[in-house]
């Protein structure tokens, strides 16, 4: 292990000096204020229409129910609306505002909205050129002719990548809280959030529903985001080993991630699509109790699928990297 | 030749072969590099020099054959074998977003027992002190080359492998490199230098292996191989016509027509009315004397090595005759 630490230090240093993490921070610093502003506008509008959040919730439930009675709405939509109605009703019955305007609530919803596209994108900024970048620059020749086994080099890259992915998740949450808190206030840690909705067909089994304080919910959410970001990172690492050019590596991974988002919204009838990794990225939905993209998917199932993809990526990465001929 | 040369075998390559996509690229390369010698690896572009070098440093796995460095097999124990090697494969690469110093620190961390003092030492050896804390992105090619060599020297290697080291250097840089390489060899380091330029190998190396189409044609000292292969003697007279007649009169001097020799044309730049001959070089003084006595002014006599192609031609001819 003492021989690995300097290698990990090398890889972490290179990512840092390439200013990749700085780019991520800047992107966050630009995007979060924009979303905060948008949220503020929504809150203002709601406030002028409804004196009480309960009225707003009732209004929303009525809207959904009107939709349910319409013939032109596809069944798929109806199902998710029906579930949403039941959840809203649950919040109303327990006198808890699900959209209370405070920094923690904003952070919670921002993080869960970011998990399928935004976080993968940030992860790709770090992971895509980890190996392909060394090949493009030719520095891979210097790296692999030093008296260090190849697996150790890839392993140290992997550790550095894990560190930066974790840091990205934490930094996003912290920045989000700090920036939105300036507008909405820094409260909301103890607010109860309901979780544990079990979805059966188009109805909700609420016997497992329980309230957790929002700080705990946020922590669980961050953990799930970390898992889904890491699976993207490991896949990106593999692509970066297999593909020689960094541009090709980014495009490949972006295509994979985006296709998952598209598939989630249309593949209700294509059952086996649930084994595709990018359909399973939205882990936070299980926590919130939103219906999964394909019926029958559960948190355990998604975790298993992601774990399988991650393990396969690692196997391919290491076996190719340790054996391949460096021809150019 | 070389004071530090010894009989220890630092690099041993035995029947090395490589197939890529079913096509044999390297068809059996064998040679040894001894301690403290400068070993040239000479061949035209595409002969398999770089592929061979990449196999020496474990970038490419050989299809068959053995490579041992200081007794360690590179295939079985690359970590131990590479500990004795410093190398620059093709271009000297470095991370442009790091400073020269940070680059050296980076590679120092990949080896045992290299501290700041050693880094400072190699920086001094290659003379990069003034700019070492600047970003590599701002370096010239020559400076990158120096940084590359500094990196290769970090681990106090017994064997330094340089792939076409004079590429992109100006004449002054090439000369400095030559002196530098000799200095390292005098300290007991073995150097393995590839090149497609005969003149370069001739000036720099003690022994040489000549490779063509993935095969080693010959291994020997530079004198044996290159001088033995015959040099041209090029004459320049004050009176070209009379001079030519004088040479024609000598039975053991063969005049070569203007387009029949295989000398690099650039060597003739600025020379006028040259007479290219092949002859016994020991006869040069007596011929000069003869010319002077006949009232023909001798402007210059050059000994010029044939081009690599010529050398190959002679070698393969020799093979078919022998």
UniProtKB/TrEMBL annotation, chain A:
| Transmembrane segment boundaries | 21-40, 110-132, 153-186, 223-243, 250-270, 299-321
**What Gene Ontology molecular-function terms does this entry list?**
ABC-type transporter activity
- Print the keywords alphabetically: Membrane, Transmembrane, Transmembrane helix
One Gene Ontology CC term in the entry:
plasma membrane
- Annotated Pfam families: ABC2_membrane_2 (PF12679)
The reply to whether Lyase figures as a keyword in the UniProt entry is no
Q: What is this protein called?
A: ABC transporter permease subunit
């Amino acid at each position: 292990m003492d021989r690995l630490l300097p290698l990990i230090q090398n890889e972490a240093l290179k990512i840092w000096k390439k200013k990749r993490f700085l780019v991520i921070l800047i992107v966050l610093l630009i995007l979060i204020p924009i979303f905060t502003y948008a949220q503020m506008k929504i809150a203002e509008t709601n406030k002028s229409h409804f004196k009480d959040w309960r009225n707003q919730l009732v209004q929303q439930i009525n809207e959904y129910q009107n939709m349910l009675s319409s013939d032109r709405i596809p069944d798929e939509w109806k199902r998710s609306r029906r579930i949403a109605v039941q959840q809203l009703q649950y919040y109303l019955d327990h006198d808890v505002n699900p959209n209370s305007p405070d920094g923690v609530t904003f952070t919670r919803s921002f993080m869960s909205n970011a998990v399928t596209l935004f976080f993968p994108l940030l992860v790709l900024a770090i992971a895509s050129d980890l190996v392909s970048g060394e090949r493009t620059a030719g520095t891979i020749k210097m790296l692999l002719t030093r008296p260090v086994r190849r697996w150790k080099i890839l392993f140290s890259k992997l550790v550095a990548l894990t560190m930066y992915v974790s840091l990205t998740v934490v930094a996003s949450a912290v920045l989000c809280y700090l920036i939105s808190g300036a507008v909405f206030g820094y409260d909301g840690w103890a607010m109860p959030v309901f979780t544990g909705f079990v979805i059966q067909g188009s109805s909700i089994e609420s016997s497992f529903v329980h309230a957790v304080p929002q700080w705990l919910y946020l922590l669980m959410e961050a953990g799930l985001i970390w898992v889904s970001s890491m699976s993207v990172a490991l896949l990106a690492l593999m692509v970066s080993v297999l593909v020689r050019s960094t541009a090709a590596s980014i495009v490949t991974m972006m295509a994979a991630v985006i296709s998952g988002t598209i598939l989630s919204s249309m593949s209700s009838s294509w059952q086996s699509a649930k084994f595709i990794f990018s359909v399973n990225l939205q882990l936070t939905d299980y926590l919130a109790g939103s219906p999964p993209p394909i019926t029958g998917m559960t948190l355990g199932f998604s975790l298993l699928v992601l774990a399988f993809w991650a393990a396969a990526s690692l196997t391919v990465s290491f076996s190719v990297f340790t054996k391949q001929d460096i021809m150019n | 030749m070389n004071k530090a040369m010894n009989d220890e075998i630092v690099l041993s390559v035995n029947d090395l072969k490589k197939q890529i996509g079913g096509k044999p690229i390297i068809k059996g390369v064998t040679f040894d590099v001894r301690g403290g010698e400068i070993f040239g690896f000479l061949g035209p572009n595409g002969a398999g020099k770089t592929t061979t070098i990449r196999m020496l440093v474990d970038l490419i796995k050989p299809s068959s054959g053995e490579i041992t460095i200081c007794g360690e097999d590179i295939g079985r124990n690359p970590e131990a074998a590479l500990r004795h090697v410093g190398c620059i494969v093709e271009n000297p690469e470095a991370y442009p977003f790091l400073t020269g110093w940070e680059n050296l620190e980076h590679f120092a961390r990949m080896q045992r027992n290299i501290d700041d003092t050693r880094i400072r030492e190699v920086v001094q050896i290659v003379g990069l002190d003034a700019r070492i804390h600047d970003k590599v992105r701002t370096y010239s090619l020559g400076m990158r080359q120096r940084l590359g060599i500094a990196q290769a020297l970090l681990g106090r290697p017994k064997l330094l492998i340089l792939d076409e080291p004079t590429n992109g250097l100006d004449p002054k840089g090439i000369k400095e490199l030559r002196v530098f390489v000799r200095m390292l060899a005098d300290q007991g380091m073995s150097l393995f230098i590839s090149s497609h330029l005969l003149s370069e190998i001739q000036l720099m190396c003690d022994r040489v292996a000549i490779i063509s189409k993935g095969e080693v044609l010959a291994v020997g000292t530079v004198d044996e191989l290159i001088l033995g292969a015959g040099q041209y003697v090029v004459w320049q007279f004050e009176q070209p016509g009379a001079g030519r007649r004088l040479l024609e009169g000598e039975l053991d001097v063969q005049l070569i027509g203007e387009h029949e020799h295989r000398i690099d044309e650039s060597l003739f730049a600025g020379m006028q009315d040259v007479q290219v001959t092949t002859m016994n070089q020991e006869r040069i003084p007596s011929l000069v004397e003869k010319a002077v006595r006949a009232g023909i002014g001798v402007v210059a006599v050059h000994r010029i090595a044939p081009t690599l192609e010529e050398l190959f031609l002679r070698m393969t001819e020799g093979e078919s005759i022998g």
